[in-house]
Amino acid sequence: MKSIKKKEAAAGSTVSLSPSRILARQNQKNLHPSPSTSPSPSPSLAPRLGLGQGGVLTEALHIQIEGGMAGKISNTPATYTPSPTSQDKKRSSIFTGSDWVRPDGRGLHQCRPAFLRTGAVNSASGSAYAEFGNAKVIVSVFGPRESKKAMMYSDIGRLNCNVSYTSFATPIHGQASDSKDLSSMLHKALEGAIILESFPKTTVDVFALVLESGGSDLPVVISCASLALADAGIMLYDMVASVSMSCLGKNLVIDPVSEEESYQDGGLMITCMPSRNEVTQMTVTGEWSTPKIHEAMQLCLDACSKLGKIMRSCLKEAVSATQE
Amino acid sequence: MATANGSNDLSSEMEVDAFRRLFPLRFHERHLLESIRPDGRPLGRARETTISLGAVASANGSALAKIGCTTMLAAVKLEVMTPKAESPDEGCIAIDFHMPPICSPLVRPGRPAEAAPVISKQLSDTILSSGMIDLKELSLVSGKAAWMAYLDIYCLDADGALFDAALLSAVAAFSHLQIPVVSLNDDGRIVLISEENSGAMWEKEPVNKEKRKLKLESCTILLDMRAPQELHSGRPFS
Fold it and tell me: Where does it reside (chain A) (predicted)?
C-alpha cells in the first residue's frame, strides 16, 4: 500500500480509489456488521459514506483480523496520510556506487544505542521494554501456566508467542508488517534457548507489542523477549541476542532503520546465544554474494556478543536495584 | 496485616497471601472494616497518577497516563478525508481502545478482554458527547478535505481503573496534538509542507497556518466510581 501511495504522489495523478485499496485499509480496522456498499470509481477521494458511531460496536479483535474479512466494507470513509512532496533521491546514490550516508549519522558498522529495562509490566510474570533508536517494544511473559484443555499431555513445556503492532507504530495508520510471520519467527528464535524440560505440561506465553517501528523490528523483539524471559525466571541455556544487517549496493549496514530496510537489496538476521557461541536462527532474504554473506555473518556475531553483554548488565542492574 | 481475629480461626493460621486468594471477599471486607485498603491507602485516596506527553514520536499527539500500575498509551494520528455531505465543515474522530495480550494474564490473542469493547464504547460516548473537541476545528477545505483523527488507546498494564486512565490519556493526547501544516496540491490532494521548504517559495498557501492546535473545551473529568473503584483497584481476583 505504501508503494501505491508513493507512486501516485510522484506521478501527480488524480487519486481514484481502487477497491483493493479500500479492502486493504478495512482489513486493519474494526468493522461494523453494516450493509456493504460498493466503492464508486469516480475520481473523488472516497465514497461519501456516513460514519458509524465511533466504530466500536463490534469488537472484532484488532489482532485477529487477517482472515475472512475480504469483501466486507465498513462505514468509515477512506482516508490518506498527507505525505510530503519530496522525491526520493537517495535510491539513486546506491546505484552510482557512492557510499551510503546513514540518516541518523551512524557509521556503517555501528549499531544503535540500546535502552533496556525489565519489569515494565506489573501484571506479568516477567516483562521488558527495549528502545533501539526509534524502535520501541514491550514484551510480557506469562507463565509457566496451565496449557489449554485441548492440548495433549506433553512432558516438555510449550512456548506460545505472539507479536502485534500498535496502529500508530508505522507512519501510515493501521499498516502493520506481517505479524503472523513475526510470531512464528520469534517462536523459532526462542525455542532453542529455553529449557523446556523444566516446566512440563505447562505453557509459557510470550507476547510482544511493537509500540513504534523504527526498522529492524524482529531483532529488537527477540532480544527484548529473552530479557523478559530472564526476568520471569524461566530457565534459559543462555541469553538470546539478535542483530540484522542490510546490503545496500556495495555497502553493508548493520542494524538498519526503516528507510534503509526499504531500499535494501538483501537482509540478513542472526539470532545467537553469545556465551555458548550457538546460532538459534538465521534468516537471509534477497540478493547476496558469498563473500558478502561471510562478512555480514561475522559482523552480526560480533554485534550479538556485545549486545549479550549489555543485556546481562541490564539484568544485573535490575537485581541490584531490588536488593537495595 | 495478618491481625489475629478470634472470630475466624482459619485466618489466623493462614498466610496473608493464601487467605487473599482463597477468601478474597472476606479479605477485602476485613480491610474495609478498618477503613483501609490492602495496599495501605485510606478509602478516599487515589493512587499516584502521572501523565507524560509526547510518548510516541511518529504520532501527531500522544500521551502516557499511569494510575498506580495501570498504564495507558494514547496516540492521535491525523489523516485526510472527505467530509460528509451533511456536515462539510466538520472533521471526524475515530476512537479505539485496545487491550493487547501484554497487559494482563486474562487476555489472550484468541480471547479478547471482556472489558475492552465496553470501555471503548464508554470512551467514545464520553469524548464525543462532551463537546470537548469542536469538530469544526478539524476542517481543512470546506466540503473537500477535513481531518480524520484516529485516537488509539492501548492498555499496557491492567490493574484496575482502566476507564479513568484511558480517559486521562485520551484528553492528554488531544492536548498534545500538533496539527501539521498542509496545503492543497494542484490535483486536489492535501500535502504536508516539510520544514526545509519553509524558506523557499510555497506554490500554494498553507491551508491551516493558524489553526495548529485544537482548543479543548474545559471539561471536568469526574474520577467518580469511588465505591466500585475500590473493588476494581485491587488485584483482579477470579
Answer: Cytoplasm; Nucleus
Decide if B194 contacts A83 (C-beta within 8 A): no
Does the predicted model carry a pTM greater than 0.90? no
CA proximity to A205, closest of B97, B237, B100: B100
Q: Does B150 touch chain A (CB under 8 A)?
A: yes
Distance from CA of A213 to the nearest CA of B (A): 9
**Chain A contact present for B156, CB below 8 A:** yes
Write out pLDDT tens, residues B215-237.
555 444 444 333 334 344 443 32
Cα–Cα distances in angstroms (integers) from residue A22 to residues A7, A19, A34, B151, B201, in the given order: 17, 5, 15, 20, 35
pLDDT tens column, B27-85: 888 888 888 888 888 888 888 899 999 888 888 899 999 998 899 999 999 888 888 88
Does the domain spanning B49-231 belong to CATH 3.30.230.70? yes
SS3 category, A161: strand
Kindly give the pairing relationship between strand B190-192 and strand B182-184.
antiparallel
* Three-state secondary structure of B147-179: EEEEEEEEEEECCCCHHHHHHHHHHHHHHHCCC
Domain extent listing, chain B:
2-33, 49-231
What is the complex's ipTM, to 2 decimals? Answer: 0.76
**Cell numbers of A222, please?**
527477540
